[in-house]
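User: I'm writing a short report section on ligand binding and want a predicted complex to refer to. Could you take this sequence and iron/sulfur cluster and write out the structure as tokens? A short remark afterwards would be nice.
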Amino acid sequence: MPKKLIDGFGRHINYARLSVTDRCDFRCVYCMAEEMEFLPRKEILSLEELLQVGTALIASGISKIRLTGGEPLIRKNIMWLIERIGALDGLNELTLTTNGSQLPKYAEDLKKFGVKRLNISIDSLQGGKFKEITRTGQLKSVIDGIHAAIDAGFEQIKLNSVILKNRNDDEILPLVDFARSKNLDISFIEEMPLGEIIEHDRQVTFYSSDNVRKIIDNEFGLEDSDKQTNGPSKYFKLKNSTSHVGFISPHSHNFCGDCNRVRITVEGRLLLCLGNEHSIDLRALMRGENADVETLRQAIEASMSAKPERHYFDAADQPQIVRFMNMTGG
Ligand code: SAM
Ligand code: SF4
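Assistant: Sure. The structure tokens for the complex follow:
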């Protein structure tokens, strides 16, 4: 019988998001500061250590791993890791969240090494605005990346868009239309208070998923759907289309009751909740004496009793989480 990881609230934890780098070729305004200091090399897990973590996660009962970052595809020799994680016994699903810029180069190999589903982030279809939001990104590289992914034939490609009021809320319908025209799914994400940013005031730019849903429903029509993925998205089907539209609403709808996941930062911290700091240091275990997969597995299992019941992004007395999303792993 494969192992099952159960937390202190009876939730079955079978999904891990593994951050393979804190670096990125973009500097999205909601994710990073303009001038970022990235971690020194020795502080981040080596590719071998990341593989050891992946192996221990699967030995603990995790069956789905999503690689993320930072931008996972800019980590040097990342394909070495992906090929090996993809071949681990007991892994049912290997997925990746990417900004798409490196997909023209890597889409085919990702498919070959067992990645079945891809999430590609895109917040604007206008070159100038795309640049404003990502600061250093080029829209063309991402559109080319989406096309490369379609050509490679992944089972599912989902676009992810963060909507900010008065920045890209006028792009909701064009983004849905784009996804529909390519038979892709798309999820809209509410901005989360991760990392301190000065570029905008998050309370001012907040745009609720409920609003996004109304706008799409009025224009295209949305039908109930029982589609479920590993995540907290609530899905609807677009009328007269195979595309689904998802909404991730950490503010408007608390999704903690169904939480099935843990995250591993690129420094090897096993984070038990996106909105809390409860964590254990897998890197220290790996770099200590007698480090082996069994030691890691036991630590992962033991950590389940410390997983918090829920996060409180909105409560005034709760501090903002100081880590940026690129540290947390999406
Ligand atoms: N670089 C890859 C990408 O952009 O898809 C993977 C990492 S990125 C941190 C993962 C996802 O987190 C992206 O879809 C991004 O839009 C989203 N994200 C980043 N910062 C966020 C924030 N403060 N609130 C909500 N979503 C955020
Ligand atoms: Fe990079 Fe992704 Fe963060 Fe944008 S959201 S800065 S692409 S890690």
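A remark for your report: Confidence is low (pLDDT under 50) at residues 315-319. The CA atoms of residues 190 and 249 lie 6 Å apart.
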